[in-house]
Amino acid sequence: MRAQIVAIAVSVLAQAASAAVEAKNVIYVIPDGWGPASQTLARDLQGLIESGTNRTNPIIGKLAVDDMVNGLVRTYSANRLITDSAAGGTALATGHKTNNGWVGVTPDRRPVGSILEAAKLAGLGTGLVSTTAITHATPGAYSAHTVDRNNQNLIAEQQLGRVHPLGSVVDVLLGGGRCNFLPQGAEGSCREDDIDLYAYAEELGWSVARNRSEFDEFERGLGAARLPILGNFASGDMRLEIDRREVQDEPSLLEMSQTAVQALHRATHCKDKGYFVMIESAKLDTSGHAGDVPAHAVGTWHFNEVMKWLSEWIDEHPDTILISSSDHETGGLTLVGNYDPTPAFEARHTANFLANKWNGRPEDADSRQFLVDEILPYYALTDAMEGEIEELLETDDMEDTLTMMLSQRVGAEWSTGGHSAIDVTLFSYAAGDKRRELQADLARNWNNIEIPRYIEEVLGLDMDSVTELLQEAAEEDDSWLGDRLD
Ligand SMILES: *[C@@H]1O[C@H](CO)[C@@H](O)[C@H](O)[C@H]1NC(C)=O
Ligand SMILES: *[C@@H]1O[C@H](CO)[C@@H](O)[C@H](O)[C@H]1NC(C)=O
Questions:
Q1: From ligand 2's centre to the CA of 152, what distance in Å?
Q2: Where along this sequence does the record place binding of Mg(2+) (predicted)?
């Protein structure tokens, strides 16, 4: 009898210990295509620059995210050891593995509910923020279901609820991808039909912004900008931060994140139900594919700024928790040999931006002069040797030659132009005592599909019932899942 009571007490305690932390709001941040070496590179560069030291007597700084490291995440997909963003996003959003290229649908072509959809159905506010097209694979996985990530026009329609069986599931959509919302024939459209999704959204009462100046107006009228909000600030992808901060024609990820979090907070803070928002630092992946050291470091600093701002927001709003992990690493970055990133600090643009500038140089320009005056100083190669200048003048891929040259100088080796299989870092933040509780829960190696299950527990949601609704709809008619494109 006594033993039985003790056993029951122990099991109750064990249950209490295994329950997730309680929170009203969850913010999930995805630094897309980003791994442990990315963090080292950005931290070292910051430390060396701030302290004025070098690799033989380094004083190394600290990033805000260094204090938020909490575990590791395995990223393999249903059909590959190396995932893409569609399968990676689907795992983090829905808790199901799928094939590379598939969005919110399992390999047997059945739609599965996401944590964002479950949040919406339970009455929470929902948001997606990204520096790529908002219709791209990662935000798509939280808000749409299609067998091919390239069906971005269809993803746009699903995000606004035009063809989604549950209607619109997102209250805030901020990112690039304007071309997917414009009808064919309109300037800058990439649709192949006459559907005007801006007209559709405005008719249903969405607050819409199509460029930086409309975003600013929106911000000035903050109290008035009502949910739902749709903002697209580039035709497709937005700029990488290193270019954006020079050109200044798009809001930054930090600005978009602040708008999303503040708008969702305003809409929910008087209610019992909070919000779920996914924020994607998408262009880290692009700089990883390109092997662009300064772009990757500056992008990482900006991701770090976003995480720092969110942690400070959470200190003021302790009913909110932050969890973050990449969907996969990109570039297979290693830091070796005479590794010292200091010279990369002088760069002011991506190699891609400069290659476009190079290809668009005036026909009568002196190539060597143009290279020396207009390209090299903006990519930290002012002191290029004669042999290097010759190589750059002769290359037929300026972006690739620039990135290889600078990577070699700083000791950064990119082992692939694609993604890698390595585990990615899990970060978390919560205020006060909740922080230790959350860290204790998360301190381990996770399979990516377990992450949304944890958030489900935190917010008291039910993704499986969303899956049932979606699969019922698909059994009647699954044309809304689109087709594989070749
Ligand atoms: C690095 O710093 C040390 C100490 O200030 C100095 O002696 C050394 O010359 C520096 N090395 C380089 C490569 O600049
Ligand atoms: C922003 O978009 C609005 C509406 O399409 C347009 O009237 C305005 O000229 C645009 N502003 C800029 C700076 O492109």
A1: 23
A2: 32, 136, 138, 280
pLDDT interval class at 220 (50, 70, 90) = low
Active site annotation includes 85 = yes
Please list, residue by residue across 174-209, b when 16 or more beta carbons sit within 10 angstroms of its beta carbon and e when fewer do.
bbbbbbbbbbeeeeebbbeeebbbbebbeeeebbbb
Q: Which of the ligands is closest to the CA of residue 343?
A: 1
Considering the domain architecture, whether residues 148 and 249 belong to the same structural domain is answered as: yes
- Take residue 375 and report the two structure tokens written for it: 């390209």
Is the Cβ atom of 249 under 6 angstroms away from ligand 2? no
Q: How many CB atoms lie within 10 A of CB 73?
A: 22
Asked if residue 1 is part of any domain, the answer here is: no
Helix ranges (DSSP H) in 230-282 = 241-247, 253-268
Element (H, E) at 484: none
H-helix or E-strand containing 134? none
- Tell me, yes or no, whether 199 and 269 share the same domain: yes
Going by pLDDT thresholds of 50, 70 and 90, the confidence category of residue 11 is very low
Cα(214) to centroid of ligand 2, in Å?
Answer: 7
Q: Specify if 368 maps to a domain.
A: yes
Structural domain that includes position 400: 346-410
Residue 341 belongs to a domain: no
Residue 361 in any domain: the answer is yes
Counted domains in the chain: 2
- Position 182, amino acid: L
**What are all long-range contacts of 159-164, with beta carbons under 8 Å and residues at least 24 apart?**
159/128, 159/134, 159/135, 160/197, 160/200, 160/201, 160/204, 160/206, 160/230, 162/195, 162/197, 162/200, 163/480, 164/480
Dihedral sign computed on CA atoms, order 81, 86, 87, 93: positive
**What is the distance in A from the centroid of ligand 2 to the CA of 127?**
24
Q: Which of 57, 383, 409 to mutate to test the pocket of ligand 1 (most atoms within 8 A of CB)?
A: 57
Dihedral sign (CA 410, 415, 421, 422): negative
In tens, the pLDDT along 113-128 reads 999 999 999 999 999 9
- DSSP three-state, residue 421: coil
Q: Is the pTM of this model over 0.90?
A: yes
Residue at a domain's end among 410, 426, 457:
410
Strands 207-209, 229-232: pairing is: parallel
432/463 same-domain check: yes
Q: Which amino acid is at 370?
A: F
**pLDDT digits over 14-23, tens only?**
444 457 999 9
109, two tokens:
């072509």
Q: Which of 302, 185, 300 is nearest to 250 (CA)?
A: 302
* Encoded tokens for 392: 């750059």
424 and 359 assigned to the same domain: no
Residues 71 and 206 in one domain: yes
For position 19, what pLDDT does the model report? 74
422 and 392 in a common domain: no
